[in-house]
């Protein structure tokens, strides 16, 4: 494998993977947040004047598979976070684009993002924030019960287009790998933990271009078009006297009470009961219309506003990667970011980073949960003992 382009750190980090790649690949950016990572990233001053800018911690987190495998983690609740890194500018025209990263929500996220952005052109990294235009936004977003999905937004002509497919994201407190693959045939794939969760056509799954065909605005339904699927049955005639059947009748079993006094209680009247013969308002039966022609639809014609874009998948300038998000509860950790044109290389990179430590991380998480449960149980025992002691003392 020949790595022709990209940062020097990407070259050094991925040389060990060279033997597994059968074709040459470009690595445009790769970050494992090892020593010196701060020299490659610029912390934005966005929201700083409002005292709403959150701080990043360089850490492996509360549970991990390797204490030396660190990423950057949000550290303050109810804060905005913005940080970015620059790489040699490129375009993904006529080539595959792969964006991949690892994210972990240690805080059991209930509202906040875990996505990254690719940006082009000239960006003032010190001012990078929520209003900064971007080319691609990709990653998990969680908020309440309604939003638990992978956002994939492609920006074209200054307009952000959200994928129309609902791709559920992971919601636990462990690390997961998110991968977006965009191919030069305008197809894409979204992977989570190296498993494909969604694939298809950019033409179909984003409303970037107007439709190729539209309903003919000049077309009108013919006057003799019969779109009634059912019609009244002409042979079904209302029975004679049907409308004279009362809803209620006098209860034949009712008897005047023996102690009833007409002078004091008034004239006794037998109560009424529902009439078993009454069937409700008469409704004529319906039958299939033999002349039914179906629901009328306007014919489709070529959309005069449609103009094909063979490079619907491509971006002329990709130059920065940024993480910009709002978090109600902090604790999201990013790591192992990769931008390349080789999906196989990205898969191998995920196996050599995330997959290598996932079992140990899961074991560490389970141990932390067990310890927490034991502490809760111990506290409950102490509280119970305290209540018993207080009750005994009160009795004495």
TrEMBL record:
Its main location: endoplasmic reticulum. It comes from the Eukaryota. SUPFAM superfamilies: Concanavalin A-like lectins/glucanases (SSF49899), P-domain of calnexin/calreticulin (SSF63887). Residues 213-284 are annotated as: Disordered. GO terms for biological process: ERAD pathway; protein folding. GO terms for molecular function: calcium ion binding; carbohydrate binding; unfolded protein binding. Residues 1-25 form the signal peptide. This is Calreticulin. It comes from Triticum turgidum subsp. durum.
